[in-house]
Amino acid sequence: MKSTRRGKFIALEGADGSGTTTQATRVAKSLGARGLSVVVTCEPTAGNIGALLRHLLATTKAGASGGPSAAEVGLLFAADRLDHLRREIEPALAGGAWVISDRYVLSSLVYQGVELPLWWVRAINRTAPPPDLTLLIDVPEIVARKRRAGRGGTHERFDHAAFQKQVVLRYRRLSKTFPRLQVVDGTRNPDDVTADILRVIARRRWLAR
Ligand code: TMP
Description:
alpha/beta
């Protein structure tokens, strides 16, 4: 990233049902209340590639014949990420705003890594700059599954127990070596999870006192 005046870039990660979307909004609100300019973004994005991805996620099953392959989906996620960076993340950071992204590169390493070699998923995402902080909202698969059942909605490509079990395990495994990552216990109530995330951010000493 070329700009010198730059906000912080934080990615929220976790299995489906872990609460990344809820926490992105809550954390942004709290940081906004401290006078920071905060932009919340998400992947898949609302752009053209992101819209195609959402359609594919809602209408095809991982491993089933007929739909796009895991590699095709992986490349679309990587392309959507570049679109996300160019249209949303980089302009916001350059303007001095903080960016809270609901999912980023680690999602690809985890989800696409279930079906594809990790080295290849890393390679297609190599030009995406790392966040200043990645927060993994960790929840056991059974807890995430109950939450998904409770909220209803479309049955997506990755929304089945065997796949999500792998997702939870892979997040835990990759979190041990992923740079600038902090794990947060996502089983607690949303207020407590938000408070934990804000504590992690405060420890970074990025906030004016
Ligand atoms: P969400 O908007 O409910 O988080 O759904 C996005 C889905 O896409 C979720 O199952 C995670 C998955 N995903 C990937 O497989 N790879 C990626 O790189 C990203 C960003 C999301």
